[in-house]
Amino acid sequence: MSERGAILAQAEAMIEAWEERFGPFDRHPATRPDPQRLRDGWAAFAERMADHYPFFHPRYAGQMLKPPHEVAAAGYLAAMLINPNNHALDGGPGTSGLEVEVVEQLAGMLGLASPSLGHLTSSGAIANLEALWVARELAPGTAVVHSEAAHYTHARMCGVLGVEARAVPADAAGRIDLDAVEAECRRGGVGTVVLTTGTTGVGAVDRVDEALALRERYGVRLHVDAAYGGFYALRAGRDGVPAEPYRAIGRCDSVVVDPHKHGLQPYGCGAVLFADPAVGRLYKHDSPYTYFTSDALHLGEISLECSRAGAAAAALWLTLRVLPLEADDGLGAILGACRRAALGLAGRLRDDDRLALLAEPELDIVAYHPRRASLSAIDAASVALLEVALADPDDPVFLSTLRVGEAAFAPDVARDADGARVLRSVLMKPEHEHAVAWLHERLRAFAAAV
């Protein structure tokens, strides 16, 4: 049996032992599938599931995708078979307690002082929605300022909330232009500024520490979208990961982080945290048929969502027991390998005669492009290289493209367009550390072919 199979088997054994506590009962025959239909269903299902990219493999260096750790999968499976609902203690007393504990750990990792307030969400988008909703309730009628390089969820959720969204430029490295933010604050009507630690494009880290002065001068709220890069707080100041922006997160008003990215969790696990627990009053609602078993906090009282999978909290709790939030152990060690992979690839690209590094990576996303004399030529060559990389079905390399503005390119590149597509590799699996040389050689071969 594989290591993964052994861990998943522990989940099944644990649930069987738990079920036996309540005595035997006869399963209803209506729930038993017909054996032939089950065989046929599995065969058809296996065929459909084969239609996925190998997110687990180092050859997949495209988007922010990878499978959960087997410990997380086992924890999720075990809890899913019970199927607790963390909306209320009645639906998930055990997993509600686990959620409170993991949220405290996430808050500690990000530097929020105790007491703070927070909970898991079904996604980073919903977590950002909640943070912006709280901001709107505290400062109605004011605008949200975010970077053009920020995740599109901010503009979209502002639309959902009926809030004005103002996008400001990013600098050549992909970070928010704080001078432009200050200009918007001076213009007036700004209630919240969104900062990003780990943009989804190039992994840029906004200078949260420098933005703190904006709150002092203009009274704005500061919200940090750390959905992608939040766990790199464990490695702040190491291997070139910028220290001060991460150390400043705890002094901001709210922060979002996605455990289903660097936290090794299955999808459906985001988190939103608030520095001031008093914002919990904004969630107040009356649901007497739900909140009747305890005077203790029901997580549904501090969430816009209702039903939420208790399995998400269970999986994260178990993962953090096995792979703790430490700089040189557990998750920190895994992130260290990802960061070294990015530095290794960037170092090779920096001196490459066929490929050019777009910018020095701050986390584990590396952007680069074929060397060409103009933006239009870079754009065409990047698209052609992507096609070549995917051309061999038996030996593909999975990359992604990203369109960036002209300011991101070296000054000797002719500006015959307002931007160009470049290639992008997300090296978020620790296995990428040992695949850097192989990946670089493949990229060079692809570049020669275009």
Bin the helical content.
25-40%
Shape, principal axes of CA atoms: globular
CA radius of gyration is 24 Å
Largest sheet: 7 strands, mixed
Q: What portion of residues belong to β-strands?
A: 5-15%
Distance between the termini: 44 Å
Could you characterize the architecture of this molecule?
The chain is an alpha/beta fold and 450 residues long. Helices cover 40% and strands 13% of the residues. The strands form 2 sheets. It has a 7-stranded mixed beta sheet with strand order 1-7-6-5-4-2-3, with helices on both faces. Helix 11 (330-350) runs parallel beside helix 13 (436-449). The two termini are 44 Å apart.
Structural key phrases:
four-stranded antiparallel β-sheet, alpha/beta, 11 strands
Q: What's the SSE blueprint?
A:
Elements (H helix, E strand, L loop, with lengths): L2 H18 L14 H15 L20 H13 L10 H17 L7 E5 L2 H15 L4 E5 L5 H9 L3 E4 L9 H10 L2 E7 L11 H11 L2 E6 L16 H5 L6 E4 L12 E5 L35 H13 L7 H21 L4 E3 L7 E6 L4 H17 L8 E6 L13 E8 L9 H14 L1
Parallel strand pairs: 2-3, 2-4, 4-5, 5-6
Antiparallel strand pairs: 1-7, 6-7, 8-9, 9-11, 10-11
Helix pairs in contact: 1-3, 3-10, 4-10, 5-6, 7-8, 11-13, 12-13
